[in-house]
Amino acid sequence: GILVLLLLILLMVIGIKCKHMRSCYLLSTTAVTWSKAEEQCRTLGGHLLVVNNVEELDYISKIVELRYSYWIGLVEREHEGHWSWVDGTDFNSTLTFWDIGQPDDWDYSENGEDCGQLHASQIRKRKMLNDADCSSPYKYICETKA
Ligand SMILES: [Ca+2]
Ligand SMILES: [Ca+2]
Ligand SMILES: [Ca+2]
């Protein structure tokens, strides 16, 4: 009815995209640190994007802006090489599409790189993952249940 239509228009206006009505995704327009990004997604009732399967990755790959990297809900919390998803999804149960040469824990800044993001790319293709410095500002993708 008219209410559903109005709701859909509202969702489009604020930039939320829903896939099969199971998850909705919000692409941020601002760049913030990883923990600030996760905090903002929690405020919206969701979390940073958890890539559960390749279909979801391919969907997201179509809606992001290529030239930006986006924080996602992947983080190395305790020790190096021990990645976890923010919603508790078992990391070993998901496929991870690291970009070539990643994760490299690049130590340009003293912190190394312990937060996951979708890597910027030149051409439209399946987005690959990169580890980056958690304290650097990047755009981000929130995921909420529809
Ligand atoms: Ca997901
Ligand atoms: Ca690291
Ligand atoms: Ca890296």
From TrEMBL:
Q: InterPro entries this protein is in?
A: C-type_lectin-like, C-type_lectin-like/link_sf, C-type_lectin/snaclec_domain, C-type_lectin_CS, CD209-like_CTLD, CTDL_fold
Q: What is the lineage of its organism?
A: Eukaryota, Metazoa, Chordata, Craniata, Vertebrata
What is the protein named? C-type lectin domain-containing protein
Residues in domain C-type lectin?
Answer: 20-143
The record's GO molecular-function terms, alphabetically, read:
carbohydrate binding
One Pfam annotation, family name? Lectin_C
Signal peptide boundaries: 1-18
Query: What PANTHER family does this protein's entry cite?
Result: MANNOSE, PHOSPHOLIPASE, LECTIN RECEPTOR RELATED
Source domain of life? Eukaryota
Q: Which UniProt keywords apply?
A: Disulfide bond, Lectin, Signal
